[in-house]
Amino acid sequence: MSYILTRAKGRLAGTIVVAICLFAVASGIYAGLHRNNPGFPVSDAPCVAPKVGADIAGCVANFSVHARLSPFGEPALSPSGDTFYAVDQKGDDGMIVPQLVAWRISDGTELWRRTLEGDAWALAMAPKGDKVATWVRDARLPIQILSLSDGKLLAQTEPIDWIRSSVFFNGDGTAILLARHGELFTIKVREGDLAMKLPDPDPYSQKCFLNAVGTGFFGEVTGWDRKLAAILISNDDNLSYLPAQQDSIVTEEKFLDATCEATHLAFLTPPRKWPDAVPRPAVFSPDSKRLAVAYNVPGTDDDYGGLIIEIRDMSLPPYYRDKRSTTLIASFPINGAYPKLTWSLDGHKLAVIYEGRNDQRTQAASPETMQVRIYSIP
């Protein structure tokens, strides 16, 4: 059950509170009826090469990589969709030495790896595929711009604190975009400048402490155009802004902080067969029209039950006051845990890197082998 509501600007949250209450009660009843149902074990769907001209969602590639990503790592796909990139966090003697690594998607071959200077967790690919941005969430560190051909540091920002949002290049790759406390900042990339500054904040802009743009890990995320905020319903009180329990209370302040200045709100419940599944990363496509959500399915005996990746159509209604459901485009089961997601620039490929359950059982707590799946999205 999921749908989009329109929020009228300039009003208090009267209509929103009503929507919250109705939706929370409905979700609570649904979850209550299914709470003791453990669902079904998650197994991998096969990956097959797509037929020429086929317009069907499905897995098109699957391979193993020798890498370990940060819990808040974000990988990247090349503009052509034939190369997968990630920051490997492996190290020796307890020292983490970040390395930027590239793999060929067709057969999983590691093409190259380059040691990075300083800390790096996440990546954003420039539209021309000639450079990447690297950064670390929730740390007072600069965003770095690197040449993809040789790893050379081209530019970097001044240290930026509390980046809960993703970083993204603009259409021609001449600037990066990031959201901070509800504001979307544009930083022009000037090669050779190692202290690029953020523009001064708008004193009249609504500030939001929690709002995540592009990629969210904690139950809420707003599209890159900041028009639509997705609220992920969950039975996990620590992650969701709208828990499914009927007796839960969501304050107006917390709700508005999570959705910030979005004019439309989308409420998403867990997959029907797995009502206790917990949403982890939720990632908007570059055009903000699709949302990929990874759900962690509970298992037994402290084991993980697997993952469900849902792709939803988040296109806004044609008229401002229309209501509509968020159509489920595709659902992909994965026998693994700890996923990280990234979209191709055209929004028609999704890459998922995760720890396979076999990897978890045969290695230590921080496995050095992860699995990658590439999905085609119509």
Principal-axes shape call:
globular
**CATH third-tier fold name:** Methylamine Dehydrogenase, Chain H
Mean pLDDT: 77
* SSE pattern, N- to C-terminal: EHEEEEEEEEEEEEEEEEEHEEEEEEEHE
Uncertain spans, ≥5 residues at pLDDT below 50?
Answer: 9-40, 361-365
Helix content: under 10%
Number of discrete helical segments: 3
Written description of the protein model:
The protein contains three helices and 26 strands. It is mostly beta strands and 378 residues long. It has helices at residues 14-34, 252-259, 357-362, and strands at residues 2-6, 58-66, 76-77, 83-88, 91-92, 95-96, 99-104, 110-115, 122-125, 131-135, 144-147, 153-156, 167-169, 175-180, 183-188, 215-216, 220-222, 228-232, 264-268, 278-284, 290-298, 304-313, 328-334, 336-343, 349-356, 369-376. The two termini are 22 Å apart. The strands form seven sheets. A five-stranded antiparallel sheet has the order 16-20-21-22-23, with no helix packed on it. A four-stranded mixed sheet has the order 1-19-18-17, with no helix packed on it. The protein has a four-stranded antiparallel sheet with strand order 2-26-25-24. It is 9% helix and 38% strand. Strand 20 and strand 21 (290-298) form a beta hairpin. The longest helix has 21 residues, at 14-34. It has a single domain, classed as Methylamine Dehydrogenase, Chain H (7 Propeller), CATH 2.130.10. Residues 9-40 and 361-365 have low confidence and may be disordered. 43% of the residues are buried.
